Amino acid sequence: MVSEPIKIVQALKQTMILYEVGNLHRQIFTDGRTFPAEFELPAYLGYSVGHWEGDTFVVETRGFNDQTPLDGMLHPRSDAMRAIERFHRRDFGHLDVEMTFDDPKMYTRPFTIRAAHDLVPDTTFSRCFAKTRRTPRTLNRNRAEEDYDANNRGGHARSGFA
Predict the structure, then answer these.
(1) CA-closest candidate to residue 47, choices 82, 23, 78
(2) Which residue of 103, 136, 141, 161 lies most exposed, with the fewest beta carbons within 10 A?
(3) Quick count: other Cβ atoms within 10 Å of Cβ 46?
(4) CA angle in degrees (0–180, nearest 5) for 9-119-54
């Protein structure tokens, strides 16, 4: 499974994951904290705590709300769902993510999916997606040509949002 574009930003005590699709973001706390006893405000993307196991970044997420489906295919999820993600950089250009979901209210057993991400350097994050599905490299080349044409012909550059 190939996933949609993401950007990972690491800071001293937390890591942020920015999702291009849906304009979503997550905070993953890496300061050694544990989960709260109760989640006052269950959230769409839950409450995430991460740590390193060798060269793999392991993230556990709890505290989801039950207001939205698990995925775009509308599989259900409940407030009891727990997710474990394992981010591993296979080499310079590839990130493998393994996600295990455990929701005893909705599913009889945990299940795992895998996604691969390709590093696409020097791209503008918000311009990686358009109505037609093109690769980020093709999209950036086409947008650069359109921007050049618009700027040199007195027209307007095309917006990054389709």
Answers:
(1) 82
(2) 161
(3) 20
(4) 60
